[in-house]
Amino acid sequence: MTRPEPAVRADDRPDEWHRLSPWMIAVRPIEQLPQLFPLILAIVFAGRGAPDVGVVLTIVAVPLVTVVPWLMTRYQVTDEHVRLRTGLITRKVATARRDRIRSVDLTASPPHRILRLTKIRIGTGTDKGASTVELNAIGSTDAQALYARLMDTARAPSDQTPADEPSPPEVLSRLDMSWLRFAPFSLTGFATAAAAAGLAAQAANEAGLFERGATAAERVVDTVRDIPVAVLVVGIVVAVLVVGVALSVAGYLLAYWNFSLTRRRDDHTLHVRRGLLTTNVTSLDENRIRGIHFHEPILMRPVGGARLQAIATGSDKTPLLLPPAPAAEAVRVGELVAHDGDELTGHLRRHGAGALARRVTRSIWGGAVIAAAVVVGVVVGPLPWPWVVVGALVLLGSVAPGLIRYRHLGVRVSERSVVIAPPRLARHRYAIDRDGVVGWTTRASWFQRRRGVETTVLATAAGTEAYAAVDLEPTASTMVMTTVSPDLLAPFVVRSDETGSIDQVS
């Protein structure tokens, strides 16, 4: 039984299937335009040599790309599962059990919004792509009804009582327009400008615009020659900064407009809403969250900015919790989400002298190579003797990145979490719930053994699944592991015969 775009009200029968909105015929080709570009080029080039062939290919390709996928896509929502059936030659059935649903995300790109459609992405909290069901084109009204219905069934069984009524969402954070000041420090706009310039130059070269504009270019060069070098350099720098800042701010607004992070206490879910042209509504089961990631980028930290992400299980293991915002706001939201204290701001256990020596040694190599090249240049003759001072300054300056990395390095074990800070120029802190730790690994390279340190890797099912505390002394590594996972490591602990204290993990 098949009928288009039904109103989602009652549960479907096992033999009852629905098609997506007929407007999927228009939306799908737009979304797949990058993948279809080679096919379009093939048809265009075939049509130049043989117009009849181009017409035939177009007649065959258009239905295959538009009508056939819509005809071969059906879905159903029963009391037990949500199922999506697709494919003409290779049939595929994606199923999400309703009692296993952990997230329901709504997305509406500009074509979706124009046609009053919404894309629904249903996740069951597992890592396999087959556990995600995506309904690409459903009417907005029906999508909202289905969203509320599926999120209601995603409640924990202990919360499903007749007396419960939906509680108003608790607003954890909302976009403040003053946060726009952090957009230029993400470098997104500058990267976008560079990529656009590269694509434009390539397209102009392919179209022969450089050859046609050779005369105009010569006139521009002649005009530029009359401008003082200092003025020209300043003008170029200002132009690049203006364009980069404008693109960064525009990108921030497009991605995070109307951002809000809310919590529903009755179903233990977090909801993230954001987007200007493409709107996104993401739901996240708090039971999937195993920690938080606090990130202060190199350029953003001096102006007090930071990002915040969750460390979670499921298909999206690093969901956004807060866009570039004040660090104090990121810390506040992190504490609300983690239900804990000062993991993101508390004092960390500093690593020993071996870690400091390794950070400085690894950092100084680049400066040493440059300094050696300068000395060779002075001895051989091309460079004058004052360049030796420049080489010495470069060598001394190369120590600074190593000291910064060591300063950011640290580890801490609290009653609830394990906090790991890796040795990077940008400041990162990963606060992982102790209940989410599933194992440990230690490793030591030849260079680490010479310094008496090792790397301790925390294993978890969330996030990147492995978080390394680099260059820890063996005693500190043993203390961290046995404090967090005493039962797991009990068979491997070697205790001192005299004091009974833990000596090492075998």
How would you portray this structure in words?
With 506 residues, the chain is α+β, with helices and mostly antiparallel strands. It has helices spanning 24-31, 33-49, 51-65, 67-71, 110-114, 140-153, 188-206, 209-212, 214-225, 229-256, 327-338, 353-380, 387-397, 399-408, 446-451, 474-484, 486-489, and strands at residues 2-4, 17-19, 74-77, 81-86, 92-97, 103-108, 117-123, 133-139, 170-174, 260-264, 269-274, 279-285, 289-296, 305-312, 320-326, 410-413, 417-421, 427-433, 437-443, 454-460, 466-472, 493-495, 502-505. The strands form 5 sheets. A 7-stranded antiparallel sheet has the order 8-7-6-12-11-10-9, with helices on both faces. Strands 15-14-13-18-17-16 form a 6-stranded antiparallel sheet, with helices on both faces. Strands 1-2-3-4-5 form a 5-stranded mixed sheet. α2 runs antiparallel to α3 (51-65), α7 crosses α10 and α12 (353-380) runs antiparallel to α14. Residues 1-8 and 156-163 have low confidence and may be disordered.
Give the distance, in angstroms, between the N- and C-terminal Cα atoms: 63 Å
Put simply, the count of helices is 17
Instruction: List unreliable stretches of 5+ residues.
Output: 1-8, 156-163
* Strand tally: 23
- What is the CA-based Rg, rounded? 29 Å
- Pairing-aware structural class of the strands and helices? alpha+beta
Q: Tell me the overall shape.
A: globular
| Estimated share of beta-strand residues | 25-35%
Estimated helix fraction:
40-55%
Q: Major sheet: order of its strands?
A: 8-7-6-12-11-10-9
